[in-house]
């Protein structure tokens, strides 16, 4: 089914969206535009996993892209998970990189086995990289820290810049860099320029 919401991409970054995992439930972020008129939506769908030996809730996360009005979206399967009913499923679509070649965001789950995964989709290659944010930030954040991580941009070398948001300070820095090398996150230094995510400008006329 075509997503009509993609036809009118927002001028502002989409807000995070959450729902409880249930049978035949779904939610999606507002759309966001990138250079060249490409628009993206982050979607989650959930249903019973239909297992004979358990009664769990399956969740599927997808990124949907469209470049022309009326065109069926290109669907990118990001990841699936299987867990208890009622667990929280959260979406946060950061947006496009300045050059329009990447789309970045995070998906998170609550419940008995909470996690946050960052996705880095490369448009030209049609490939996606997933980074376990929960695991990578464990050494630099207290276990009791209640915080969210928001993608705010990239660096000239391709690292992803994230901002830690929490009610109380629970790490040595609020801004961090993360790359695909597998190394632990490192604080953003003052002399490291951050390229903010692409922002669609409104028509000055």
Quote the distance from N terminus to C terminus: 35 Å
- State the low-pLDDT regions, or none: 1-11
Which shape, going by the Cα principal axes?
A: globular
The assigned structural class equals mainly beta
Using only C-alpha atoms, the radius of gyration works out to 17 Å
The count of domains is: 1
Q: Per DSSP, what share of the residues sits in E-state strands of 2 or more residues?
A: over 45%
Treating each run of at least 4 consecutive H or I residues as one helix, how many helices?
1
Could you give the count of β-strands?
Answer: 15
Helix % is under 10%
Main beta-sheet strand count, sense and barrel state: 5 strands, antiparallel
Written as H for each helix and E for each strand, in order along the chain, the element string is EEEEEEEEEEHEEEEE
Mean pLDDT over the full residue set: 85
How do the strands of the widest beta sheet line up side by side? 1-7-8-9-10
